[in-house]
């Protein structure tokens, strides 16, 4: 807060020109009135009565029609220009920076308050008093919606807007019946208080640092300016007689500086504008857009606004341009003292070119080294997650940005749309050096599906759930990522399956632009929604194995042996055991048992003539339906997934079995096992 109060004093000094300008304008209008006084005197008596009619329930301290013949309260009218001007600037910048339309609506509410207040103070008519006071309620409801719905997906659904609408209609109805301004003032004050409490609460979700301090200062300045205006408003009400005497003694034009209700307009306009900018900045931070947005200052460095950075690789203007994104860096991996350096990076990673023999590659552990620091990281998370998960996502990105400023952060296009990231993921896939996943095993499976060829090294973090593929807890992300960037990590190459689909005429069924579909856990062929059992002919290396009459068949990797295959009765296979696993799903005959075959074998699953349509699923995702005579071919993929392991987890697989499957222990609540799993 040390920097907040000097900023406040500078703002107060800079905004002194507003009432002083008002004094100058009033002096000019006085001359104008003297010139046109004869025309005024020519108005009929009836016209003068209509012009000077006061029907409002409020009459402020400024003398009516004293400073201008046609304006009831001149200074109180003129100061509303600031509401309209700041609102228009906010709308302009929001549209220019392509921020959300919710903020355009919020600024529109501020402008409506300014217009209503202008008309009210100009005429002091009751209908225009309502146009001043009721928009204050409505605009504040808009601000309330913006500050309560801050996540990547709607948290309160229809209930929040419906509740705010009910509140606004209720306040309007009651106010029109009781015609008591105190009711409006109390309800408005309660709503403003709720909004500010919520604002301070959300501030705690921003990680400590420079950005947090900037955001906090912005909120406190908004509070201080608005609170100062509230003090002016009360003084204008309580000490009106004394203020009028002081103004008369000072005289024009400087006596207008004592029009404290005009200062209330100035302070509430500035404070309200600052608060909306705070809300905009808070939202982009909570949604993960850390590095692309900065708080700028205009109009003599006193009007804040959000601005996208021109030097970002992720500007919308360059979302199809990968020339500015650095190429992948080479890496070195070693096994048992044998060093093998990757060639210059092309599309994908060079892990598949280390050795051409299966035996020396899959299931083995390697040490990763970077000759030069990696430059591009892809962060994977589910697009629709909890607020806590979104907050963690933001925290990781901000830490990476501050700790490794030269590291370019890439996220998926679906997540990017929600987090306002401005690069299309598909254009940068070939330049990713390593991947960070935040979530469970399903997030890693999703990562596998993004790469139809080589996969960069993957480091996975648990967000609280348990999984066989999760090597690190999110609490330790800083140390784990630092070790990866330094090259002090161990890699386990987990096998994937290459799956191809064929028609009965042996014509390939291509799914989109993909030729071979990659499966990390398993590929399954099952009856889907149909009640009849599937009839599938199973071949191994073109030799007929059996006719399976079952709900379906699963072909799994060692990694997938603890997933669907295990639920179907298959064995648990250690990830270093090089094999393919065929498991029947609820077979009609108990003689069909799971089978373990060599990783070099090719499996063919053909739909028999008497079978119905059969569904193909890869890692839990539906791919397509196969009809009679169509077949699925499965073989070991040439593109494994290099997963980062903790170096100290020499017996990690045994501990995973004990902890996740709860062998050798009672069935206790799994939350007691989480920290034990990641700390042992």
From TrEMBL:
It comes from the Eukaryota. One of its GO terms (cellular component) is membrane. Keywords: ATP-binding, Calcium, Hydrolase, Kinase, Membrane, Metal-binding, NAD, NADP, Nucleotide-binding, Transferase, Transmembrane, Transmembrane helix, Zinc. Pfam families: Ceramidase (PF05875), Dimer_Tnp_hAT (PF05699), NAD_kinase (PF01513), NAD_kinase_C (PF20143). Residues 3-51 form the HAT C-terminal dimerisation domain. Its main location: membrane. InterPro entries: ACER, ATP-NAD_kinase_N, ATP-NAD_kinase_PpnK-typ_C, HATC_C_dom, NAD/diacylglycerol_kinase_sf, NADK, RNaseH-like_sf. One of its GO terms (molecular function) is hydrolase activity, acting on carbon-nitrogen (but not peptide) bonds, in linear amides. Coiled coil: none annotated. The keyword RNA-binding does not apply. The keyword Calcium applies. Its cofactor is Zn(2+). GO terms for biological process: ceramide metabolic process; NAD+ metabolic process; NADP+ biosynthetic process. Ca(2+) binds at residues 59-60, 62, 64, 73. It is found in: Membrane. Zn(2+) binds at residues 121, 261, 265. The chain crosses the membrane at residues 74-92, 104-126, 156-176, 188-206, 218-235, 256-276. Belongs to the NAD kinase family. Belongs to the alkaline ceramidase family. This is 655_t:CDS:1. The lineage of its organism: Eukaryota, Fungi, Fungi incertae sedis, Mucoromycota, Glomeromycotina.
